[in-house]
Amino acid sequence: MAPPDHHLWRLCFLVSSILISSASACDRCVHQTKVSFFSKASVLQSGACGYGSMAIAFNGGHLAAAVPTLYKDGDGCGACFQMRCKDPNLCTKQGTTVIVTDLNTNNQTDFVISSRAFRAMATQGKDQDLLKLGIADVDYKRVPCNYKTKNLAVFVEETSQKPNYLAIKFLYQGGQTEIVAVDVAQVGSSNWNFMSRNHGAIWDTSRVPSGALQFRFVVTAGYDGKWYWAKNVMPADWKNGVIYDAALQITDIAQEGCSPCDHDDWTS
What is the pTM of this model? Predict the structure, then answer.
């Protein structure tokens, strides 16, 4: 179902913004940086994205704080990156995959990752040697998140105050995508209200429709954007702290409008 005409400008504006920013980002290309680690994953769980303790279940605790250019004011929350350290004496060719759950304000590294993820880059028996370095040179690239059988889910934040305020976050956002706009409406209604990004992965609104709720959102993959419609997600008696199944999976892969990668011979 196509969105009403008065909403089309939002899609055009958002996609044009992504096109401009992605022209230099080229997430799919291989990049080089230095990576350090947090000794406690709890630091990343309580990070700027707002996932809280749920983050530990996303990717086996392989979490990351990313610099502002990758965090993207919260659009980058939930993005997956494959990285491998460049010391062949300590590290495997496969490396590991991390998921962005926090903002990294350290301008010396693109990522600060959990110690579990840091150790996972090492060859067998070399993880402690790698940890002793404290910081490692790595290659990294954006990769699709794969939650297999898990559908996209909506978590109702504890700060929600029915019926006047609703705050949510999306869980298990698959593919190589970013959610850049969210609308909510009563099931069966075409009267959509937009939600605003509060911070990180948290979206909210003070214009909460009554009854059961449906959502639609703009998902971008590189420069390409499209609407997704989750038709019947939350019951009329929705409750704080509950996860609701959106009954759809996002699997889009980024198609960026940037030049060919200078070196993209890294095979996963």
Answer: 0.87
